[in-house]
Amino acid sequence: DGGITQSPKYLFRKEGQNVTLSCEQNLNHDAMYWYRQDPGQGLRLIYYSQIVNDFQKGDIAEGYSVSREKKESFPLTVTSAQKNPTAFYLCASSMRSGSGANVLTFGAGSRLTVL
Amino acid sequence: AQSVTQLDSHVSVSEGTPVLLRCNYSSSYSPSLFWYVQHPNKGLQLLLKYTSAATLVKGINGFEAEFKKSETSFHLTKPSAHMSDAAEYFCAGGVNRDDKIIFGKGTRLHILP
What we know:
heterodimer; A: 115 residues; mainly beta; seven-stranded mixed beta sheet; globular; B: 113 residues; six-stranded mixed beta sheet; four-stranded antiparallel beta sheet; 53% strand
């Protein structure tokens, strides 16, 4: 089945450590996105990428980094510079086709807890 | 600039009664609007999408939404709530295919037995 796979599902990190969240899709989608979800705040966009080797900052990019070396992969690194990294992280993808905004397909999420 | 506002953070209805989840949008251009549903500790699933073809949009699981330009609203409705509808619902919008999608803060729907 086609879809988006995020790993790990749960991750614990000590303060000062960098961690990388994996996001892989086999949908042949062009665009990929990372969102952060906190209770009562909805989804906030961290980074997005429309094509391979290109990505743009979203609304809350500080303390995060990404790469897009392959079409199917868009890993997110949460660095030690991110002051409050405990959150639920969602990866999504979409086709770039037609007019209007595209439907996002989401992964199951990764929950990061800083100890 | 565009924005999406969900007017209620929590809604409670009894099983078998109608559901109304409210969403207002602001956009300088004709938007695409979406409703997504999220069950606990899961990703989001698309319920329905509006792209100007028809103002009344039917989605999965009996949900529908009506785009009202004069009221800048895109409210989600269902005639009869089921226990399995208990989840968090997100309204979202964008303008063109390269736009980032803007999400509302979500509405948690509680179904009372």
